[in-house]
C-alpha cells in the first residue's frame, strides 16, 4: 500500500479546496452577476464615447453586409448599424431604468398603504391592482402613450403606470408578515406610532424587495418600450431606438438585408436576458435560505 507524503497530502488538499471553490454556487453567482453588470455598464459608456458620425447619412456605404469595418452592416442610408444598435440599447436601458424606478416606488407606496392603513384602503388598492392586471400591458401602454402624445415622456409614464400591480401584491404580503413579527408587536405595545414602525422596522425590510423588483421589472419595461415604439406609438423615429430600428428594417428584409433586424433584435434579447440573470441572482443572494449555498 502506498503511503502519501506530507507534500502530496498538501497538494491533494489544495486541489480539493480549489474544486470546492469552483463548485461554490455563491462564487459563480457573483461572477456571473459581475459579468452581466459590466456588459450593461459597458454599453452605456460605449454609447457616450461613440461619435455621431456613425449614424450620419453616407450614401457611399449604403446596404453593406456585415464586415470587419461594419460588424452589423449598414442600412439604406449608409448608417453604421453597430453604432445605431449600441446607442439604441443605451436609450432603452436609460428609459427602462427610469420607468422601472417609478413603477417600483408606486408599488412600494401602495403596498405599504394597503398593509398598514386599514381594511378600506386595502380593499381599494386591491381593487385597483385587479383592475390594472385585467388590462393587457400593451393595450394600456398604447392608450397612455397616445393620450400623453407619445415620445419618451409617454413611454416612461405608460410603462411606470402598468408594471406595478404584481410587485404591489408581493410588498403587501411582505408587510403583512413583518407586521405580525415579535419585534413589531413589542414596539406597538411600547407606544410607537405607525409611522415610526413603518420607517424603522418595515421599510428596511423591504429594501431588498425594492432592488430585486427594480431589476426584474426592467426587462418587461424595455421590451414593452421597444414594442410600442415598433408599432409607432413610442419614441420619435429620429432617435436610434431599437424599436425604431426594427420597425424601419421590416421593409428591407425581403430584399435580403437580414442584418438590419437580426443584430439589433439579438442585442435587445441579450440585454433583457442579462437583466433577468442579475435579478434572479440578486434574489438568490438576498434569500437567507439560499445565500450561503
- Which of globular, elongated, flat, extended, rod-shaped describes the shape? elongated
Rounded to the nearest angstrom, the distance between the terminal CA atoms is: 37 Å
Any low-confidence stretches, pLDDT <50, length ≥5?
A: 15-23
How much β-strand is present in the residues? under 5%
- Major sheet: none
Q: Determine the mean pLDDT.
A: 80
How does the helix and strand content classify structurally?
mainly alpha
- Helical amount: over 70%
Kindly provide the radius of gyration, computed on alpha-carbon positions and rounded to a whole number of angstroms. Answer: 25 Å
Helix and strand element order? HHHHHHHHHHH
Please count the helical segments: 11
Strand tally is 0
SSE arrangement:
Layout: H1 6-22, H2 25-49, H3 81-116, H4 119-133, H5 137-147, H6 151-160, H7 165-179, H8 182-189, H9 194-230, H10 242-249, H11 259-286
Helix pairs in contact: 2-3, 2-11, 3-4, 3-6, 3-7, 3-9, 3-11, 4-7, 5-6, 6-9, 7-9, 9-10, 9-11, 10-11
Amino acid at each position: 500500500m502506498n503511503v502519501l507524503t506530507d507534500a502530496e497530502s498538501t497538494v491533494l488538499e489544495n486541489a480539493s479546496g480549489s474544486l470546492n471553490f469552483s463548485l461554490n454556487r455563491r462564487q459563480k453567482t457573483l461572477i456571473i452577476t459581475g459579468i452581466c453588470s459590466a456588459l450593461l455598464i459597458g454599453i452605456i459608456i460605449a454609447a457616450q464615447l461613440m461619435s455621431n458620425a456613425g449614424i450620419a447619412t453616407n450614401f457611399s456605404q449604403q446596404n453593406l453586409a456585415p464586415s470587419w469595418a461594419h460588424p452589423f452592416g449598414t442600412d439604406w442610408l449608409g448608417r453604421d448599424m453597430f453604432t445605431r444598435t449600441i446607442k439604441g440599447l443605451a436609450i432603452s436601458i436609460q428609459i427602462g431604468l427610469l420607468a422601472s424606478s417609478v413603477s417600483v416606488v408606486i408599488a412600494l407606496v401602495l403596498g405599504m398603504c394597503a398593509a398598514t392603513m386599514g381594511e378600506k384602503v386595502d380593499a381599494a388598492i386591491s381593487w385597483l391592482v385587479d383592475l390594472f392586471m385585467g388590462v393587457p400591458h400593451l393595450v394600456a401602454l398604447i392608450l397612455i402613450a397616445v393620450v400623453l402624445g407619445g415620445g419618451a415622456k409617454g413611454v416612461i409614464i405608460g410603462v411606470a403606470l402598468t408594471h406595478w400591480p404584481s410587485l404591489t401584491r408581493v410588498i403587501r404580503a411582505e408587510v403583512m408578515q413583518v407586521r405580525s413579527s415579535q419585534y413589531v408587536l413589542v414596539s406597538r405595545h411600547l407606544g410607537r406610532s405607525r409611522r415610526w414602525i413603518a420607517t424603522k422596522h418595515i421599510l428596511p425590510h423591504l429594501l431588498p424587495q425594492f432592488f430585486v423588483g427594480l431589476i426584474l421589472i426592467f426587462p418587461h419595461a424595455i421590451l414593452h418600450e421597444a414594442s410600442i415604439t415598433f408599432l409607432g406609438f413610442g419614441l420619435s423615429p429620429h432617435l436610434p431606438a431599437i424599436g425604431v430600428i426594427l420597425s424601419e428594417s421590416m421593409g428591407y428584409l425581403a430584399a435580403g438585408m437580414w442584418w438590419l433586424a437580426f443584430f439589433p433584435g439579438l442585442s435587445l434579447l441579450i440585454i433583457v436576458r442579462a437583466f433577468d440573470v442579475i435579478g434572479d441572482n440578486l434574489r438568490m443572494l438576498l434569500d437567507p435560505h439560499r445565500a450561503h449555498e
